[in-house]
Design goal:
Layout: H1 6-11, H2 28-39, H3 50-64, E1 71-75, H4 81-88, E2 92-97, H5 100-109, E3 113-116, E4 128-133, H6 143-156, E5 157-168, H7 170-177, E6 182-186, E7 196-205, E8 208-217, E9 223-230, H8 235-241, E10 248-252, E11 258-264
Parallel strand pairs: 1-2, 1-4, 2-3, 4-5
Antiparallel strand pairs: 5-11, 6-7, 7-8, 8-9, 10-11
The structure holds S-adenosylmethionine.
The site of S-adenosylmethionine has 17 residues, from loops.
């Protein structure tokens, strides 16, 4: 925060850059704390509870893969909760994620091959039967990065292979933006290992939703800010992004507010 008081930071909070922002999944400490959220069976925040993942994996195996053994690439695989289950169903699975704690956990505990890399810039390899990017993560990328990921996916698939996206509905993203500001205190949590106050504010501006978390720790004058953004798309906009694929089929998701899209190369 330097010379700026806490009040200055908060009063000027909307005079920020137009740059796309994501929460720091790749930061080692943040990723260690996020891993606990992925594995928690009390909520579905970072990954869904195992019971729902079991159902979703079963649907992917039967409906998307016709129960045939496949080479699968999971982009943003987190701690490998999908990959482990899909390996056990006979598939050959690779996961890529840039969260060091998640990749370390997946390598130690789960079947499959795991790579620590950024899915916007990293290499995917080739010859996959299925590439998946699930739980709404596509919407958390700047639109140009989302398109870049889709284009890279097309190159990574064999002809006839499928891209499975699970995206957030526009209504859900707009509802998130309309949530009133809120706050909480905690002894420790996702944003800090220490006692802290977290102020949270959501907005919709320039065609995208953002939620910013202002974290104030005990005995620390600095205020840490974290912003997550999501961009909504219509069905036609998804079809346009996927115009190199045919057919493009829409399916329900196991979670309200999301839906799945399977696109064939
Ligand atoms: C909502 S979580 C979903 C995790 C997993 N797919 C699941 O459902 O259990 C999103 C994941 O995407 C990863 N991620 C976000 N941006 C990424 C990037 N640029 N490169 C690689 N991984 C990324 C995060 O680290 C996180 O593990």
């Amino acid at each position: 925060m330097g010379d700026q008081s806490l009040l200055d930071v908060l009063l000027n909070r909307h005079n920020t850059t137009a740059e796309w922002q994501k929460i720091p999944w790749h930061d080692p400490d943040f990723s260690r704390r996020m891993l606990a959220e992925h594995l928690s069976q009390d909520h579905d925040l970072a990954s869904r509870r195992y019971e729902i993942i079991d159902q979703h994996v079963d649907w992917i195996h039967r409906t998307i893969l016709d129960a045939q053994p496949a080479a699968i690439l999971d982009l943003g695989c987190g701690p490998g909760l999908y990959m482990d289950r899909l390996v056990k169903l006979g598939h050959t699975c690779t996961g890529i994620d840039f969260s060091p704690a998640s990749i370390d956990y997946a390598r130690r505990n789960h079947a499959g091959t795991y790579r620590l890399d950024n899915i916007v810039t990293g290499d995917y390899g080739t010859g996959f039967d299925l590439v998946m990017l699930i739980y709404g993560e596509l919407n958390a990328f700047a639109p140009e990065d989302a398109q870049r990921i889709i284009d890279k996916t097309h190159r990574a698939l064999r002809p006839g292979g499928k891209l499975l996206l699970e995206v957030m509905s526009s209504e859900t993203i707009k509802q998130m933006a309309g949530q009133p500001p809120t706050w909480y205190t905690a002894e420790s949590g996702l944003f800090s290992d220490h006692p802290h106050l977290c102020l949270q504010e959501s907005r919709f501006e320039s065609g995208r939703q953002s939620t910013t978390y202002y974290v104030i720790e005990e005995d620390n004058e600095d205020i840490q800010t974290y912003t997550a953004m999501h961009h909504p798309c219509t069905d036609d906009e998804y079809r346009q992004m996927l115009d190199a694929f045919e057919p493009v089929i829409f399916y329900p998701s196991p979670t309200d507010g999301f839906f799945c899209i399977a696109a064939t190369k």
